[in-house]
């Protein structure tokens, strides 16, 4: 039996997610999208909450021969942080050399994206604020987990994870990782994030750049002296 999509596109999912997050009333929020797919969702949340929009630059490391199976994830920062899924590591027998090589490759891609998306523009700091991590959906949670740990290391007072759709088992696991977890749907059986959308096209870098430009004025009325994009 074919399941009907839950959302027309990421923008609609973002507007519905924004309603749920607004009801939480997060204190002094800053929005972190997981690019590229999370950017249109996060844009709608940032607009509704009048909060700065930033990106959590995280890259998944796939298992040897199984690139879609999340072995680890690495997140950008002054000291880049990596989260390893030890059960997948044991199952696949991934070596330290393999992980180190993939970490270096993904850090290079993170640096490319950082230069492309931000250049010399200052980033939003999560220190002392409510950091809201947003993606277009959750599968294993590897990249979200890395982003969450990275934001905590940067001093976020509270970390909230918000996604339109996730499998029940991943949702249950992530609830234990954050101060609050918002998910609009937890279908079972869960087959893919894309199944929840009519339009789930692959985003290009220019679309992310356009969203960041359009969001530049969001959150500019917050407390004086805080960092901003």
UniProtKB/TrEMBL annotation:
<dbReference type="Pfam" id="PF00156">
    <property type="entry name" value="Pribosyltran"/>
</dbReference>
<dbReference type="InterPro" id="IPR000836">
    <property type="entry name" value="PRTase_dom"/>
</dbReference>
<protein>
    <submittedName>
        <fullName>Phosphoribosyltransferase</fullName>
    </submittedName>
</protein>
<keyword id="KW-0328">Glycosyltransferase</keyword>
<feature type="domain" description="Phosphoribosyltransferase">
    <location>
        <begin position="25"/>
        <end position="173"/>
    </location>
</feature>
<dbReference type="GO" id="GO:0016757">
    <property type="term" value="F:glycosyltransferase activity"/>
</dbReference>
<dbReference type="InterPro" id="IPR029057">
    <property type="entry name" value="PRTase-like"/>
</dbReference>
<keyword id="KW-0808">Transferase</keyword>
């Amino acid at each position: 039996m074919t399941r009907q999509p839950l959302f027309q596109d990421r923008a609609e999912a973002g507007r519905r997610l924004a309603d749920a997050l607004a009801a939480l009333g997060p204190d002094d929020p800053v929005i972190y999208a997981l690019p590229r797919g999370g950017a249109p969702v996060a844009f709608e949340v940032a607009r509704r909450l009048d909060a700065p929009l930033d990106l959590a630059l995280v890259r998944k490391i796939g298992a040897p021969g199984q690139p879609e199976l999340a072995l680890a994830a690495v997140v950008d920062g002054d000291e880049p942080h990596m989260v390893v899924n030890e059960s997948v590591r044991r199952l696949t027998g991934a070596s330290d050399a393999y992980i180190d090589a993939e970490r270096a490759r993904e850090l290079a891609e993170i640096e490319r994206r950082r230069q492309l998306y931000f250049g010399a523009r200052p980033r939003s700091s999560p220190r002392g604020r409510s950091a809201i991590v947003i993606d277009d959906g959750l599968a294993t949670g590897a990249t979200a987990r890395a982003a969450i740990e990275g934001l905590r290391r940067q001093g976020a007072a509270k970390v909230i994870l918000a996604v339109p759709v996730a499998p029940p088992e991943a949702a249950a696991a992530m609830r234990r990782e954050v101060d609050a977890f918002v998910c609009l749907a937890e279908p079972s059986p869960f087959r893919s994030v894309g199944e929840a959308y009519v339009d789930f096209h692959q985003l290009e870098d220019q679309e992310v750049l356009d969203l960041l430009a359009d969001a530049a004025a969001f959150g500019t009325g917050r407390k004086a002296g805080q960092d901003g994009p």
